Amino acid sequence: MEKEKLKRKSKRHVKAIVEETVPLESAVETSEQPHGIIGEEVKKEEIREAEKEQGKNVLKLFTIAFLSMIFVAIVTGGVYTYLSGVSLSKNEIKITPVLTPTPPGTPEPSAAPETTPEATKKPDITPYKVNVLNGSGKIGVASQIKTDLATGGFKKITTNNANSFDYQETLVSAKENVPETVTNLIKEILSKKYTVADGESLKESSSFDIEIILGLK
């Protein structure tokens, strides 16, 4: 009986020891398990923070690039607008004439008469008789002027010596009915070689319409 009691006591003791050992092991396992989970959570949190930081950096770079593009566009548009405005202002500059008011009672200037073809038409000089006189004594001067007058269109030309060789100026005389345009044409031809002055009018009984006395100058 005592042996059986001892066996029962030893079984109970062993059972108690086993029950105490098992909770200790499970406690160790449960105590170690939270530390591993916490480490993984920390790592995941760090990864999330890194991703967030990276996302923020990308957003910053994108924002800077976008603002830079806007700034460049604004500057380019401003320069283009300025240059366009300068070119337009140059093209639009016009000179506005300043009109001076006319005092009351002042007659307005009349328009200049139009030049008609008849006014500029060369007169017919072929009918006029021209007498060329040598008043300087130089040989051949009358013949030279005769040639010049013939080139100018005169047809009836005679040459002779003047009553004296003491003439200094070259004189042109004409009848009163000879048009001024004809005498002016003769003066124009003579002025290439001589200093021309007006002489006395010829009498109506004269055989010539125009008389030229060639002087020394």
UniProtKB/TrEMBL annotation:
> InterPro entries, from UniProt?
LytR/CpsA/Psr_C
- Bias (Low complexity) occurs at 108-118
Alphabetical keyword list: Membrane, Transmembrane, Transmembrane helix
Using the record's annotation, list all stretches that form the LytR/CpsA/Psr regulator C-terminal domain: 128-215
Would the keyword S-adenosyl-L-methionine turn up in this protein's UniProt record? no
Pfam families referenced in this protein's UniProt entry, alphabetically: LytR_C
Positions of region (Disordered): 99-123
UniProt key word Membrane: yes
The UniProt transmembrane annotation reads 58-83
State the name under which the record lists this protein: LytR/CpsA/Psr regulator C-terminal domain-containing protein
Task: Report the source organism.
Answer: candidate division WWE3 bacterium RIFCSPLOWO2_01_FULL_37_15
